[in-house]
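Pair request: fold both.
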Amino acid sequence: QVQLVESGGGLVQAGGSLRLSCVAHRSEVIFRFLSMGWYRQAPGKERELVAQIDNNLENNFKTQYLDSVKGRFTISRDNGKNTVYLQMNALEPEDTAVYYCNRVDHNSWTWGLGTQVTVSS
């Protein structure tokens, strides 16, 4: 069973940066074939997809972003390490949430614990 482990969150002032990492343990056989995404869930809100990156076989690592993070966040992946990253720059208080990663299709893996990102104004 795949285990998702997110890390890299923390408390940062508005305008600051963080880099999140997510390792999909025990996904070696399939990871490189999947589109992967970063999601976030703020208190009292539903989980939303923030960024996704496609697999290299079909879409040459095509990326897509939530409008509110375009130009500030960058998603990337290392298939050799079964890892997906999220570089977050120019952080805003509205980015405060728990951030999770998962595959972007109808067969989500069990969600990890996520990593808390808190942006102070």
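--- second member of the pair ---
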Amino acid sequence: QVRLVESGGGLVQAGGSLRLSCVASGLTFSTYVMGWFRQAPGKEREFVAVISRGGGSTTYADSVKGRFTASRDNAKNTVYLQMNSLKPEDTAVYSCAADRYYDSTHPESYNYWGQGTQVTVSS
């Protein structure tokens, strides 16, 4: 049974930082592309970042480029999202997801999802 469990969310002031973690189990982690998505109240799920199987390639949404960094540790079955210079518009539930085949920015491509962690940025 595949499980993805996020942690690290919380309340932070604008300009602050948070580091999200997502621990995977029940799958061969190194064979999956990992993505981060977010969903704000009343809005559709939005792509944030994707990282390749080996971690050498990353793609970011324009809205977070230069502020967020995705990384992974395949030995720990964990993917991270370092979020700096946070803005109130970054407030959302952040979820990690695993894709067996593609470095996709589309949530429909992903096979497994975590339950999400809330990030709230106050102004």
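Observation on the second member. The first strand starts at residue 3 and ends at 7.
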